[in-house]
Amino acid sequence: MPKKVDRHERRTLIADALMRVAARQGVEAVSLRHVAAEAGVSSGMVQHYFRTKDEMMAFAMAVVRERNQARVTEAIAGLGEDPPPRLLLRTMIATLLPLTEESRADGRVALAFLAYAAVRPDAAAGLNEDTRELVAFVAGLLPGPYARERAAGLLALMEGLGIYLLGGQYTADQALAALDAQLDIVFETAEAPARPGTGSAVQRLSRW
Fold first, then answer.
1. What span, in angstroms and rounded, lies between the C-alpha atoms of 69 and 52?
2. Mean pLDDT split into 10-residue runs, the chain, 208 residues
């Protein structure tokens, strides 16, 4: 009897190969042929699971999101019940910054996907809703007026720190110091209001 093929496992194998190619050589090196060679499979197999490069890139980004979600879930669980909003937000962002070898590899893929999506609106379609939901969630954790604008600024800082870490311009200590300084600014004026549940944050705050 033929062995049953796990479709998700095969797609993940191919996505992992794509991520290694993108991390080493950049997104321009990603092609069906290169990914097939990296995965040790035929180009025909890659095309069986992914008809286009866009599909491969989108699935690889979904894998990165899943990994980040698992990291954030584990980090939040370590805070105990009902952590203060500042600690919750700091833990989430610090967990998602590329501070380890594993998260750096995923961060390179995320950065490659963003660069790829910047010139391909169809590939970027899912990012807009993710961003709106993420800004709304973070705004719910911040005290005082203009929470939405300050949430957007804080997330922009996260993205910028991720780029600086990946490029070697910042060390981990410098990035965390910058994050703490910004959190001090946004939390210094008032106590945070009651926050929404953390489930959506685990799903959405996962780009890096």
1. 26
2. 67 84 75 88 88 80 83 91 93 93 84 78 72 89 89 94 94 96 82 50 54
